[in-house]
Design a protein that fits this description.
The chain has 95 residues and is an alpha+beta fold. 34% of the residues lie in helices and 39% in strands. It has two helices and six strands; from the N terminus they run βαβββαββ. Strands 1-6-5 form a three-stranded antiparallel β-sheet. The longest helix is centred in the first third of the chain and has 16 residues, at 5-20. The relative contact order is 0.22.
């Protein structure tokens, strides 16, 4: 199963909202990739900025695949990537 940028962002919003006790709509997310840090996201919650690393993104996706698709996968079963042509991020779960 493969999901794209919008669903990755939704997964992060739901995960952070649950952890912080805020509404998912109150969270903004910008995904990024660079050679030094790999996949990261800058999130804004109630006006404050924070960066999360790849392991946090994978944790959010692991929970998202389970709650939204009833698909039980582990972080090691999730691959992140970028479609160079469309510049979309994607996450693929192997079950």
């Amino acid at each position: 199963m493969r999901v794209y940028t919008n669903e990755i962002i939704n997964a992060i919003c739901l995960n952070i909202a649950d952890r912080r006790g805020v509404k998912p709509e109150d969270i903004e997310v910008q995904l990024a990739w660079d050679e030094e840090y790999g996949y990261t996201a800058e999130i804004w919650v109630t006006g404050r900025s924070q960066y999360i690393i790849q392991s946090n993104i994978l944790e959010a996706l692991e929970q998202y695949f389970y709650t939204e698709y009833q698909l039980r996968v582990f972080r090691s079963d999730i691959t992140l990537g970028i479609d160079e042509e469309s510049e979309q991020f994607w996450a693929e779960a192997r079950s």
